[in-house]
Specification:
This protein has helices spanning 11-23, 40-57, 68-74, 86-105, 123-137, 152-163, 174-181, 186-197, 202-217, 220-224, 241-249, 320-324, and strands spanning 2-8, 26-32, 61-63, 110-113, 141-142, 227-229, 253-260, 263-268, 274-276, 282-284, 299-302, 306-308, 313-314, 332-336, 342-343, 357-359. It has 360 residues and is α/β, with parallel strands linked by helices. It folds into two domains: 2-183, HUPs (Rossmann fold); 202-359, Rossmann fold. Strands 8-7-6-11-14-16 form a six-stranded mixed β-sheet. The protein has a five-stranded parallel β-sheet with strand order 3-2-1-4-5, sandwiched between helices. Helix 4 (86-105) crosses helix 5. It is elongated and about 75 Å long.
C-alpha cells in the first residue's frame, strides 16, 4: 500500500476519506494538528474521536501539540475577517505547513487534508495553502483533490451515525464560535456544553474547582459577607466544598437551596445536615430561611450551564434560579463556572436576572 500523510481536522470529516483510501490501496498516517480549535475542551473531544477511530482501524495517528497562542500569532491582524476570509487562509497555511514538515520528516512523499471535505471551507484556499506549504518544505507534494465528490459526503454522514461520532456545531476557532453562538438555541447550547464537560476528568474538575474557590475566598467581597448562599454541586459543576468549609470557619451564615415543588427553598446549613433530594442533589435539612429574611443575604454564588461576559446565565432549563434571584434584592450575584462555560454571548430574555460578576 502507498502511504500518505492525512491531516485530520475531526473524525466525521476524516472517516469517509480514510475508508476510501483503504479501499483504494492507500494507507494514511493520520496527523492531528489543529491549534485553532477553541476552547481546549473542544480540541480534546475532536482529537479523542480521531484517536478512537484510528484505533478501530489499526492506523497510526500522530498528535501535534495544542498551541493556541501560536495559532493566535499566526492569524494576528485577521481576527475581524469573516468566515472564509483571510483569517481562514492563514489558519490553513499554519496547519498545512506543519503537515508538510511532518510528512517530510516521516519520509513520505504526499500529504493531503480532510479540510477539503468540510462545507465550512473554501477549496481554493485549502489548495493554495497546501501547495504553498509544500513549496516551503520541498521534497513533498500536496494532493488537492476535492474530497466532497464521489459520494463521500453522503458516506461521511452514514459513518457519523454508525460510529456515533461527536459532530461539532462550529468550524473550530473562537471567532467562528462567536458567530455560531448567535444562532444557537438554548437546548443546543446545553447539549454542546455537556459534551465539553465530558472532555475533563474528575481530577481536573476538583483541581479547577479548588483554584476557582480559592480566588473567591481571597476577594474582599467574600471576606465581608456575613450571609452567603452557596449550592451543593453536581459532579460536573464547580465544587464549592472549600467555600462551604471556609464560610463555617469564619463564622458566616451559610444557606443552601432545597427543591420544593417548582421553587427553591433556602435552608440554613449546619454540618451533617445534608441528604439526597431532587435530581439526586444533596440538600439541606436544617432550619428554613424565611423569605422575609432574604434581604440580609450578602452574596449568592450561583451555578449555571454557561454564562456570558454580560452576566447572562444559562441554567438547566427548570427555571429554579430564575424564580429565586428576583427575591434577593441585596445579594451580590456571583456566577461561578469553568473557563469553557464563560462565553461571549448567550441568548437572553427580558426577565433574565443578570449576574453582577462571573468567576471562572
Amino acid at each position: 500500500m502507498t502511504e500518505v500523510l492525512l491531516h485530520c481536522c475531526c473524525a466525521p470529516c476524516s472517516s469517509a476519506i480514510i475508508e476510501w483510501m483503504l479501499q483504494n490501496g492507500i494507507r494514511p498516517v493520520l496527523y492531528y494538528c489543529n491549534p485553532n480549535i477553541f476552547p481546549e475542551e473542544e480540541y480534546l473531544i475532536r482529537k479523542n474521536e480521531c484517536t478512537r477511530y484510528a484505533a478501530e482501524l489499526g492506523l497510526e495517528i500522530v498528535d501535534d501539540d495544542y498551541d493556541h497562542a501560536a495559532w493566535s500569532c499566526a492569524i494576528h491582524g485577521h481576527e475581524t475577517e469573516p468566515e472564509r476570509g483571510n483569517r481562514c487562509l492563514e489558519c490553513f497555511r499554519m496547519r498545512l505547513l506543519s503537515a508538510a514538515r511532518r510528512c517530510k520528516d516521516m519520509g513520505l512523499a504526499t500529504f493531503t487534508t480532510t479540510l477539503a471535505s468540510s462545507r465550512w471551507k473554501r477549496l481554493d484556499q485549502i489548495a493554495e495553502a497546501g501547495h504553498w506549504a509544500a513549496s516551503q518544505i520541498g521534497g513533498v507534494q500536496f494532493d488537492d483533490r476535492n474530497w466532497r465528490k464521489g459520494g463521500l459526503q453522503q458516506r461521511r454522514n452514514e459513518l457519523l451515525r454508525e460510529h456515533g461520532f461527536y459532530n461539532q456545531v462550529f468550524c473550530g476557532c473562537e471567532y467562528s464560535l462567536a458567530a455560531r453562538l448567535s444562532q444557537m438555541q438554548k437546548a443546543e447550547l446545553r447539549q454542546w456544553i455537556k459534551g465539553l464537560k465530558s472532555a475533563r476528568s474528575a481530577q481536573w474538575i476538583r483541581e479547577k474547582s479548588n483554584e476557582t474557590c480559592s480566588r473567591l475566598m481571597s476577594d474582599g467581597l467574600w471576606r465581608a459577607a456575613g450571609t452567603v448562599l452557596l449550592y451543593h454541586p453536581l459532579p460536573d459543576e464547580v465544587d464549592t466544598s472549600l467555600l462551604l468549609d471556609n464560610a463555617l470557619q469564619t463564622g458566616k451564615r451559610v444557606l443552601l437551596p432545597k427543591v420544593v415543588g417548582d421553587d427553591l427553598e433556602l435552608r440554613i446549613y449546619t454540618p451533617g445536615s445534608l441528604q439526597p433530594g431532587a435530581y439526586n442533589i444533596m440538600e439541606p435539612t436544617g432550619e428554613v430561611f424565611l423569605p422575609e429574611s432574604y434581604p440580609s443575604i450578602d452574596l449568592a454564588v450561583i451555578p449555571g450551564v454557561a454564562f456570558d461576559r454580560h452576566g447572562v446565565r444559562l441554567g438547566r432549563g427548570k427555571g429554579y434560579y430564575d424564580r429565586l434571584l428576583p427575591l434577593l434584592p441585596n445579594a451580590y450575584r456571583m456566577g461561578i463556572c469553568f473557563p469553557f462555560q464563560l462565553l461571549e454571548h448567550l441568548p437572553s430574555e427580558p426577565h433574565d436576572v443578570l449576574m453582577n460578576e462571573v468567576l471562572s
